[in-house]
Structures are given as structure tokens and as C-alpha cells.
Amino acid sequence: MTNAFDQEQAQKEGKIIPKSGVDENYDQAEDAIQKIKNKLEKYLVELQNFFGCKVSYFGSDKKRFQIDVPESHTKKVTDEYQLEGTKKGSKPSKRYSTPQSRVRLYLPKSSPIIIIQLLAEMLKAEHERTKIIQDLNRRIFEKFSEKHAQWEQAIMCITILDVLCSLAEYARTFSQDMCIPEIEPIADSHKIIIENGRHPCVLNVDSFVPNDTKMGVDDYASILLITGPNMGGKSTLMRQIAIICVMAQMGSYVPASSCQLNLIDRIFTRLGAHDDIVQGQSTFLLELLEASSILQHATPFSLVLLDELGRGTSTHDGNAIATAYACMVENDEDPTEES
User: Fold this and answer.
1) Of 199, 222, 256, 290, which has the fewest beta carbons less than 10 angstroms from its beta carbon?
2) How far from 19 is each of 8, 9, 11, 23, CA to CA, in Å?
3) Rounded distance, CA 335 to CA 27, Å?
4) Torsion angle, CA of 179/185/188/194, rounded to 10 degrees?
5) pTM confidence score
6) Domains of the chain (ranges plus CATH)?
7) Is 113 in a helix, a strand, or coil?
């Protein structure tokens, strides 16, 4: 299979073209096309000898093989040549078809259509080759589908291996602190302790300031309210905590000097601001719908990230919504929250 076709060509064109000697029917179709090309070249030489100048073919698809003759040599053209078109410019020429290479057919409606004989032969041979390629592709994919379960298992193994290698390479090349996180089982307490944590996607940035995060331990509440100026890194810190938690539960090294946390069952986010014009939903409505969904589905072992809840309305109303939401979460002792 590896040497049966050009793999680079298959990736570019999206179809498998067999190499010579792989499929007998395909080789026969290629030989037929090559014979027609040889006829065309031979006929072109005869035309060049007749006109005493360089003559070439013109056209594409079903209008291929028109004879392009320089206008200065068209005096030899007889009534047997049918004019198909002209070219203006510095090198004007005229394009013809000849009775030697065309036949006249009549459809049932008696409308005559002139078809270049060599072109008809070429189109027929190319159509036959296309059918063979399609059938060959069908047979290959059919064999591939028969072992679908094995291929799927192999792909899954390669995918997991790729992830593990990527995490290992990340841990090896990261220039700042890395540690093995300490994961504790789900319990009545739900804590997150991260010392000198960094965002995993911010690499080798000297101006990046590492952050400590403590939630649900000692005198630290399970809700963390983050305030600060624009561009101060509030949203980055929120994403940083979520990604570190995901990496820790994957068994990966994490970008921090130390990391301890209980298992988290799900992570909910309400980040950014956008509306849905098609559904007729405003930014504020989407905020409330997503926030409500979080309250309905989050558990005491969930991590919730809320970024500027209530930004879609006035400052006073937004502040009231965010305060009420935080109180509801704290009183119900539901999710571990970051906002």
C-alpha cells in the first residue's frame, strides 16, 4: 500500500492515483490516453509542415485541440478549415478545426453538434480512467472500513501518545518552576492551593508575575473575588487556574512551585461578552442564561469562572446581580468559584 501510489499527490488532490503496474485496468486507460497524445503530436507535425511555421493547439476541456495558426500564414487555409476564433495583439492568429479531425453527429432533436474526433477519443479515455480511479478508491476505502475498529484503536493510541509526549516536552523545555501536583480525592472540603503559578501558554515572558492562589483552605473562602485595573491580568489569572487544574488531573507537570487540590468534577465558565442576533438574544440575556445554567448544574466539587457578571447592563444593576449571585453560591455552599 505504501508504494502503490504517490501519497503526497493523494493528500493534495484528495484521491488515490495508482502507480504503473499496480492496477491493470488503470494502466490500459493510461496507454489509451498516451496513444491519443501521440496521434495529436503526429498530426501537429503534419500541420506545421503544411503551413511552414510553428502551429500549436489551443483550448481547454471540451474545446481543446483547436489549431492555432499565425495570421501571416493563414493564406494556405482552404475551405476545409473551419474558423473557431481569432486572437488579436502583437502576435495575431486564427484558430481552426479541420474536417479530418471532426465528425458531425445528430441528436434526436436534429440539432447538429460538431465534435473533434481526437477530442472525443480523449474525453472517452479520460472518463474511463476516472471511473477506474473511483472504483479503485472505493475498494481501498472498503477494505479500510472492514478494519475500522482496529484503525480507530490505533488512532486513539497515537493520539494519547502524542498528548503525553507533548506534555513531557512542555515540562522539559519550560524555563520557570514546574512541579508534580498533589491530587486529593473528592471530600467534604474542596481546596485549591497554587504557589507561584503561571499561565501555561505564556512562555518565557520576563514581565509575567507569578501568582499564589488559595481557596477553601484554612481561613480562605471557597470564593475568590478579583478586582483590579484593565489589562491587570484578572482574566489571565482565572484561565491560569482552570488550565492548571485540568493539567493536574491529567497527570501532567504544572507551571507552579507547588500545587495541591481536590478532584474537580466539572469546570464552568462565563467569560467574555457577546450576543446572538440570529436567536434575538442580547448580551445581558446570554449572561443571565449562562449564569443560571451554572447554578443548576454545578456541584460542590465544580470550579466556576465568572468574568464581570452583569457587564451587559448598567453598573448599578450589574453590581447587584453579581452580589446576589455570589451570596447564593456561598449560602448554598455549591460550587467552588472564581470571579
Assistant:
1) 290
2) 13, 11, 15, 8
3) 67
4) 10
5) 0.60
6) 7-146 (1.10.1420.10), 177-338 (3.40.50.300)
7) strand
Of how many residues is the chain composed? 339
Q: Is 298 exposed, middle or buried (0-12, 13-18, 19+ CB in 10 A)?
A: buried
**Closest Cα to residue 173, out of 212, 211, 200?**
200
Contact (CB, 8 A) for 94 and 86: yes
Residue 199, sorted as left (phi over 0), alpha (psi -120 to 50) or beta, turns out to be beta
* DSSP string of 188-229, one letter each residue: S---EEEEEE--TT--S-TTPPPEEEEESSTT--SEE-----
Q: What is the pLDDT along the chain (339 residues), one digit of tens a residue?
A: 666 777 777 778 777 788 777 788 888 888 988 888 888 888 888 888 888 888 888 877 777 777 888 888 888 887 777 788 888 888 888 887 765 544 333 333 322 333 357 777 888 888 888 888 888 888 888 888 888 899 999 999 999 999 999 999 989 988 888 999 999 888 777 889 999 999 988 876 677 889 999 988 888 888 888 888 888 888 889 999 999 999 999 999 999 999 999 999 999 988 876 777 777 778 788 888 888 888 888 888 889 888 878 777 788 888 888 888 888 877 765 444 444
Q: What is the largest CA-CA distance in the chain?
A: 104
Report which residue type is found at 135: D
Distance (Å, rounded) from C-alpha 139 to C-alpha 133?
10
Q: Is residue 81 a contact partner of residue 50, using CB atoms and an 8 Å limit?
A: no
| Residue labelled with grid coordinates 481547454 | 60
